[in-house]
Amino acid sequence: MINIVLFGKPGAGKGTQAEFLREKFNLVHISTGDIFRFNIKNETELGKQAQVYIHKGDLVPDSLTIQMLESEVNKNADASGFLFDGFPRTEAQAVALDNFLATKNWQITATIALDADDNVLIERILERGKTSGRADDQDESKIRNRYEEYNEKTAPLIDFYKQQNKFYSVNGIGTIAEVTERLSAVIEKL
Q1: For residue 117, is pLDDT > 90?
Q2: Fewest beta carbons less than 10 Å away: which of 18, 70, 75, 98?
Q3: Which domains does the chain have, with CATH numbers?
Q4: Looking at the record, which segments are called NMP (predicted)?
């Protein structure tokens, strides 16, 4: 079983790349953003709680995120592997994910980061915001707030996964095909 964490700032291309990697490596793609949007759209109790944080541009608290994620993994218990997109975002989430996977005798195989310059990413998100309908993609101050949250809470995961020899970094700038090729090269060596 291959379990990959796809890591990177908002706008780095995680969702786009996840679709290609899901198909190529037969993985179940679990996007916390998609899970949040599904729960919000369907007005589940967890969705209503998550909406409050997302509307402000803040990260959803670990307890809500973990509950949603565990539910999605359990729905796909026969999978040959998972591609986690947007999770974990904090060391506490990484530990919770490790503990949850251990109950199934699974583990994270690798964490792969898509690296890109903040200004390039902000332009990508603002462009995406023109068609996504997402309010948090249309306001540069909210985007910058998400980056501050990322730098403060998520960037420390690099060291967490480096200590486990599970961290890889890939240049996230280029055509979709070029970035997919770089990511695939890492996964094929695992």
Answers
A1: no
A2: 75
A3: 2-180 (3.40.50.300)
A4: 31-60
